Amino acid sequence: MSFELTIGRADCQSNTDKSALRRLGRQRKIESVRSDSDRAPKAFVDDAGQETNCQTIELTCASLATGMKCLPASKVIQANGNVLHDWHAEILAIRGFNRWILEECASLTQQGKKAEGEWIDWTNGDIHDGQAPDSASPQPPFKLKSDVQIHMFCSQAPCGDASMELTMASQQDATPWTHAAPSSTPEDMIGRGHFDRLGVVRRKPARPDAPVTMSKSCSDKLALKQVTGLLNGTVAKLVRVDGCYLRTLVMPDSETVDDAVKRAFGIDGRMKALRAWEGSQSGYGFRPFEVKTTRRKFAYSAQGAEAGGSNLSALYTPRRQEILVNGVLQGRKQYDPRGASSASRRGLWRLALEVAVMVGTPAIMKTFSQPTYALVKEDANHAREKAKQLAWDKALMGWKRNERDDAWSVDEA
Amino acid sequence: MIGSLVRRSSGPSPRREEVVLSKTLKSTTPAVQHHGVADIMSSHLHEPHPDEIADCVLDKFDALAQKFKPRTLADGRREWSPLAGIVLSRRKCRLS
Question: Which long-range contacts (CB under 8 A, 24 or more apart) does A175-178 make?
Fold first, then answer.
């Protein structure tokens, strides 16, 4: 007996033209790896104990984003949950993933508690890590299906620590930029300059004349996702976090400096102290991703582009697409509530509330019915806050929170 | 496997996996092979090649309408942007 191994991307084929599909060899077939009928496996057994042929990998793009800006610290207070704080591509793609997963939950909820989702399952009160269901702090009603793994592709090295060597090499004058120099207190986060300091938490880079942002670099945020998983605090109340950690980060070969990546993300780098942490009962733990490289190029990368960076930011999920400018929908003024992205704080809270009401678990409904976003966050995630604090104390020292944007309610326009 | 190791891709994606699989299969004894193969298959099948992950995002972006993409200015100069995407992988099973 022989069997075939194919690597396919059913979802990714749907919108692409056939010639490109052939050119890129998307539906690849690996020739039969053996032909000895006595020794080859006859079938695989799936979760339900049924014999299957499971030789195909299916890849699905759940979210993608472009973008390269963030909100100055002085403007965050006006955002009211409507304006994104940080729309660097990596961060917006993760927000998009959160939106997508919530929409999958909404869809499954509409089908009823006996239904099976394509990507999401009901947890049905699974007892998790020996912890009994608790009505005051109930298990999330949903989980990503257990056979799904999550990967991320970035067309550039993430800003911050993982790309410091590249930043240094690209300087005509190696003198570090001097704007917003750190004070003597270690709590002050540095921006792009100060090349002598590696492995530290940084603010997002900006032009020397730009107002200061308190958004942390993508390297720092991705490093923290190794502790919190990809779900944000709102979504983590509804979906189990332990199935939503990033397994692979794919970066361009030309932009991957091994030492930088190991330092920024690796188990022997600045995250080292977290190896000793055995994780929390709520499913949080230190789950480092593996960095892999590709030589694939993005057609709109900075290399060879004569004009500047685009002010347009695209957000795509299989259920929704948006074009954003300055952190809100294109065509809306920046603080107009009608301009809020579906992946904004307000957009996610609103949908999470709808899902919680449909599911009907009293404690979860109560969380999302709190009068302000601050109270929702406080109510939602003690375990998450503990995990983040541990990461800040042990690994990502100097992480300073942004200005608050949480004193608003879900319904205020 | 998971950790600080940086894996660099080289050459066309599936062939590398194929070579590894073939070697592994041939060096495994029949007595333990069924489980051995299942484990090997499982680990390999759950690890898509980085080029495939990149292609999944790049192709999806390519398929978007032009209005989602950085613009080319009237004088022909091109704008740029970083791109990032989340890709889900899973084994696709066909009933035997």
Answer: A177/A208, A178/A208
Closest CA to A284 of A396, A103, A99, A129: A129
**Three-state DSSP class for residue A40:** coil
A230 falls in which pLDDT band (50, 70, 90)? very high
Annotation marks residue A354 as catalytic: no
Binding-face residues of A in 135-194 toward B, CB within 8 A: 145, 147-156
Question: Looking at A4, A31, A58, A90, which residue is catalytic?
Answer: A90
CB contact under 8 A, B25 and A153: no
Please judge whether B52 and A149 are an interchain contact, meaning their C-beta atoms are less than 8 angstroms apart. Answer: no
- The answer, for B11 touching chain A at a CB cutoff of 8 Å, is no
Task: Let me know: does A122 contact B48? Beta carbons within 8 Å.
Answer: no
ipTM of this predicted structure: 0.85
A360-380 residue pLDDT tens: 999 999 999 999 999 998 876
Indicate the SS3 state at residue A52.
Answer: strand
Cβ proximity of A234 and A349 under 8 Å:
yes
For residue A9, list chain B residues with Cβ-Cβ distance below 8 A.
52, 55-56, 59
pLDDT of A254 higher than 90: yes
* pTM of the predicted protein model: 0.81
Does residue A323 register a pLDDT over 70? Answer: yes
Among A130-144, A225-239, B43-57, B75-89, name the one with the lowest average pLDDT: A130-144
- Which two structure tokens, joined as six digits, stand for A198? 């590696």
Nearest CA-CA distance, residue A293 and chain B, Å = 5
